[in-house]
Each structure stands twice: as C-alpha cells, then as structure tokens.
Write a structure and sequence with these properties.
The chain is mainly alpha-helical. It has one domain (5-153). It has three helices and two strands, in the order αββαα. Strands 1-2 form a two-stranded antiparallel ribbon. The radius of gyration is 29 Å and the shape is rod-shaped. The mean pLDDT is 84.
Length: 155
Amino acid sequence: MASGIEELVNMLYDMISDAWGLPFGAEKCLLERDKVLDLIDEIRANLPKDLEQAGIIVENRNEIISQAKREAESIKRAAEEKARQMVAEDEIVVTSRQKSNEMVTAAENKAREIRRAANEYVDDTLKRLEEVMAQALSEMRNSRQQFKNVVNKNK
C-alpha cells in the first residue's frame, strides 16, 4: 500500500480530514474502522524498519570513527617511523620531529573533524526521525481521541 511512515501518517491525516462530519458535531467525523486500523497496523509494521535504519546510522557512525582512529594511528606510526629513520644527523632529527608532530597533529585534527561530522550527522538524522515519530504519535493520539469521541457519542 504505502512505503514510509510519513506517507502512512499523511494517508491517515487525509482520511480524517476528508471524513464526513457529524451533524451538530463540528470537530467529529465518521471513519471506516477497518481502514484506520489497517493504516495503524502498517505504521506499526514500518516503525521497526525506521528504528533499524537509525541503528544502521549509529553503526555507520561508529565505523567512521573507528576508521578515522585507524587512519590517525597509521599516520602516526608512519610519522614515527620516518622520524626514526632520520635520526642520523642533528638537523635532520629536528626537522623530522617537527614534521612528525605536524603529521600527528594533522591526523588528530582530521580524526576529530571526522568524529564531529559523524556525530552531527547521526544527531541530525536521529532528531529528524524523532520528530517524524513524535508527529506520527501525536496525530495517532488525536485520531484515536476523535474516534473515541465518535464512539462515545454514538452510544
């Protein structure tokens, strides 16, 4: 039927907004129970997919951070090895230490930047997912309350 939670929530919203209003009940309407329940079932079925996607994003973030650490360590080892090879003369030693420190600093800065970017990406993605899920939950609660009001009025 529909693919994502947002589309399902939009369908539920449209169903409610297009529903026939009850006479003398300005904010009350009639809905086809089976259709509403089917949409809610689809939303429930899609929620684990979105949560799984969030898990994948967190896992990707961890992989990026691990890769950055490995790259920084590799650069650091390369710089240290190069420095050891240049120990033969005093002037070369001074130069090699400077370059080694610069490379280590550059690697650490790059690792920090990658970690920061990965954290921002994950935080932004999780924030958007949280907002969509909160909106879906809010709309579902409103729909349920309206449904209860209709049922209670018809008793």
